Structure formats: structure tokens, C-alpha cells
Amino acid sequence: MNRRDFLQLAVLGAAQVMLPIPARAETTPRPSIVSLRVRSFKLEEATIAELQAAMQSGKESAVSLAKNYLGRIEDLDRRGPALRAVIEINPDALAIARALDRERKTRGSRGPLHGIPVLIKDNIDTHDRMMTTAGSLALLGSIAPQDSFVAKRLREAGAVILGKTNLSEWANFRGDRSSSGWSGRGGQTKNPYVLDRNPSGSSSGSAVAVSANLCVVAVGTETDGSIISPSAMGGLVGVKPTVGLVSRSGIIPISHTQDTAGPMARSVRDAATLLTALAGSDSNDSATGEADGRRRDYTRFLDPKGLRGARLGVARKFMGAHPRVDSLFEQALAEMKRQGAELIDPADLPTHGQYSEAEFQVLVYEFKAGLNAYLAGLGPSAPVRSIRDLIEFNEKHRDQELPYFGQDILVTAESKGPLTDKTYLDARALNLRRTREEGIDAVLTKHRVDAIVAPTSGPAWLTDWVNTDSGGADATGPAAIAGYPHITVPMGLVHGLPVGLSFFAGQWSEPVLFRLAYAFEQATKARRAPKFLPTVQFS
Questions:
Q1: pTM of the full structure
Q2: N or C: which end of the chain has fewer CB within 10 A?
Q3: What DSSP character marks residue 225?
């Protein structure tokens, strides 16, 4: 959850003792910093298509792939750099892989995800031997009563769910002054490029797992920035779909008007493949009524010449996070022009920055309603059954759950009334108007552009449990609040830290965004694998 623009509006909790944090990077650059030694990995940067070809030829199998990635998790996540991206391993992963190998031999492949190892965020329900906890100790032992829609779609597609990923606890909507990527259950996830840097959140573990090659692709969730921001800071392609394209049933909620699951991948093609499998209508999520009619095979829109003739609006007000990011953005714009795009520059949103306070009001109201309903649905054996229970649990377990930051957002949400309150209804209407008809839609219509482009965010900040996250400006808010799609793709490196380029547009515009993002990716090939540096190497 992207907190930096609006969570300062939360009611601040009482002051609390902060534990010591790991040493900061030295202010004077060290002359030589070497990456942490990790064992070579034969599947490094492998794509879905490459792994399918290897299984088809008999060189690999679903079992051998699962074993390789489980070994990689042991090497990098449990030992070595100890990334802490994976919160739980699926004890049935190898059995599932063996069954899929038998099926391939007897009945053929189900499709592009057959036998492909996938990780999913630990707020996505699975009815198996894995827990779903949102990173909270309060839900330890909680087994979901049924698979989420997302887990069901992955299983139907033949994916092997290797396990679940760490996250910013409660999708970073528990307390202000939090550290992205930290949860009481999973600890602090590290950025694989520079280990003392933050991975951003809340889908921190999903991003780090894909970037560090702990899996092929992963599923994250977003309310505002939780797929896009960690993807950008992990050198990944992240896709936040139109709200309603992918069902949220069985996902621990924040906001029924903004939440969505989406793909995180090392390439646009892999992200398109995963979204094709995830999208669809679900009777348990009324927002998905149009999904079956809108879903596509998104790989059909991947055209290396897809920028030719495109009209792109340049949202310059999202610049300023970092001068080197701005320089990379200018280079990206120049490259898109070389690829045949027409730039409308500037094409800023008229309502830029006019929605943060109202967004917070919407989210705390919807969080109370949604989380209470989810917890009540876990059944009488659930460790906690309401937000009130959760607040009490955290207070009783302060040493484990509240050592660094509080739960003031939970307290604020608990104090809110029903979704019929005028305060909520007015804030929601204001946000939709400012981000849709007066925001993104206004730019698309006025300038007749296919999409809006902006730098996604600045480079990753130092993880700091005392002073909280310290990232600068980012471009996640408008599309998140509007419920519109947003894709980030690697744009380059700043002092060895990845930054992304954002494409966003109107409702159901995923085909256009995939075409543009793929063409940019193919023209630049900007992704670089992480080096697991202990701190930044300045040249």
C-alpha cells in the first residue's frame, strides 16, 4: 500500500520505544563493494516460454523446475542474503508438480502455465496446508475455508504454487510510520539489488521473489501502489489491472473500490501470460461482471513496433523524485519518439495531487467493512474475528507486533461508521470525479492520447525502522483511485537501483498498455538482474 501521500493523515498513536535499526550506509562511499556470493542458477532470468520449451523437450519437468526454485529459495531467501521474500513454502508443491508431469504425458499441456512455479502474496487465500495471514501473527494457523478465485485460476491453468510471499503487514494499512516489506510473521524483506535498501510495498515479497529468480512470476495485490511501486524498485514489469478484471474474492481486503490482484514478472510477455490466466468474472465479486467480456489473450497485443503511431501524454508533474530519474525519463521519451510515438508534452492531470485526503477517508471506511466481513467469514475457530479483536491481539503481543510502529490506522478504521455515512459517500464521489472525468479521462479526451506516461517513482530508500519509509513522488495514485489499469516497465538504474516507466489509461485499456510497454521493453532491454550488494556502490 502506498502510504507516503496520505497516511500522514491517520490519527497518530502514542509514542513508543523504537528498537535499534541496522547500520545505515556510510555517507562516504567505500572504494570497493562486492556483491554477496550466491551460487549460480541455471534458470536465471528464464521466461515462461523457455521453461515450457524445456519441459516439452524433456530437458526439464515440473518437478525439476520446482526443485530448482525451491533450492534457490533455500540459497537466497533462507541463507546467503536472507531476502525474507517467501513467508511459507507449500508442502504439497512437489506432489502437485508430479501430478502435472503425469498429466502432460497422458493428456498434454493445459497451456502456458502448465508446470510453471508461481508464488502468491500472503493475503490470497488457499484452501490447502498453507496459512493466509496478511503477515500478521494474529492469523497464525488460519486456513482459508476455500481457495481464492486467483488461486483457483492458477490451479486450473496448471501452475505450481510454490508458496506465499511476505508483505507489508495488512498490506501496509495497519499503522503510520511503517517500514514497507516488514511483517510480524515474516520480518523485513530486503531489496535484492542493494540489501540495505527497501523493496517498497506492500507486495514486497512477490517483487523480490521474481526479481531474485526465486520463481518465474508472482501475484501481488494493490490498493494504491502495492504492485506498481515494488515492481519498479525490483526491476520488474508490474500490472495493476482495471478493478473488476480479476476477482478479489478470497483476498484479505482494504478497499472494494480500489483493490485488485495482478501479475509481477521479469518481462512484459510473462506478465501478459499471467494476467490472461487470472482474468475473469466471478459470482462472488460483483465488480467482475464485465470481466469475461473484457478479458483477452493479452499476448496477442505484444508488438515490438507498438509505439509507432501512438499518441502519448507526458505527465511531467510526476517528475522530481530524483534528478537521475528525470534524466532517464527524458531518455525514455526520446526513445519512444525514435520508435515512432507522438508525444503530447506536457499533458498533466488537471487535478494532480488533489485526492490524497479523500482517498484516506474512503480507505478507512472500506477497510473496516471489508476486513470485518473477511475475518467473520473465517469461522468460529479463527484466532481473531474482527478489527476490534485484532487491535486487542496486537496490544497483548506488542513485543512481536508493535516493536517499530503502531496500529493507528486500525484504530481509525474501527472508529468509522457504515458505508452509508455522508463523509464516506462524499469522499468517494470526489475521488472518482477528480481521478476519472477531471483527471485521466480529461487528459485522454482533450489530447486524444492512447495513454499517459510518467516516471513510476524514485529509487529505493534505505530501510529505516525509526524514521519510516522515505520515498519521493510516485505516479500510482490516479489510476489506483480511478480503478484504471497501470503498467510499469524497467526504465534503467540509478546508482545500481532500478526505476520504472509508467503507462496508464482508461478503464479496460490493458491491450493498449501491453502493446506500448512491450514495444518500450523491446527497444530498451533495461532490466538488469540484481547483484545483492550490501550497500550502494558509487562510481
A1: 0.94
A2: C
A3: S
